[in-house]
Amino acid sequence: MSQEKVNRYKQEKANRKEILAKEKKKQTITKAAAGVIVLALVCWLGYSVYDMATRPDTSTIEMDASALDSYLSSMGAESAE
C-alpha cells in the first residue's frame, strides 16, 4: 500500500463514528420523507374513494314511453280478439 492510501485509511478510521452517524441520519430522513409521501398518497386515494361513494347521483334520464305503451296495448287488443 502506498503511504497515501495508509493515511486515507487512518483518517477514515478516525472519523468512522461521524461518517456512520451522518449515513444513519441521511437514511432516517429518507425513510421519513418516503413515509410522508406514502401517507399523503393513501389519504388522497381514500378521500377520492369516499368522495365518489358519497357524491349524489344528479344525472336523470327521461324517456318518452308513449310509443311503447301504445304498441303493448295494441298487442293486448289483438290477442283478446
Q: Kindly state the number of beta strands.
A: 0
> What is the strand content?
under 5%
| Unreliable spans | none
Instruction: Output mean pLDDT.
Output: 89
Shape estimate: rod-shaped
Question: How much helix, percentage-wise, in residues?
Answer: over 70%
What distance separates the N and C termini? 114 Å
Q: Class by helix and strand content?
A: mainly alpha
Largest sheet: none
Keywords:
single chain; 81 residues; mainly alpha; 3 helices; 81% helix; 0% strand; rod-shaped
Task: Draw up the topology in text.
Layout (H helix, E strand, L loop, with lengths): L2 H12 L1 H39 L11 H15 L1
What do these coordinates show?
- The chain is rod-shaped.
- Helices cover 81% and strands 0% of the residues.
- The chain has a domain at 3-58.
- With 81 residues, it is mainly alpha-helical.
- It has 3 helices and no strands.
- The model has no long low-confidence stretch (mean pLDDT 89).
Summarize the structure.
With 81 residues, the protein is mainly alpha-helical. 81% of the residues lie in helices and 0% in strands. It is rod-shaped, with a radius of gyration of 37 Å.
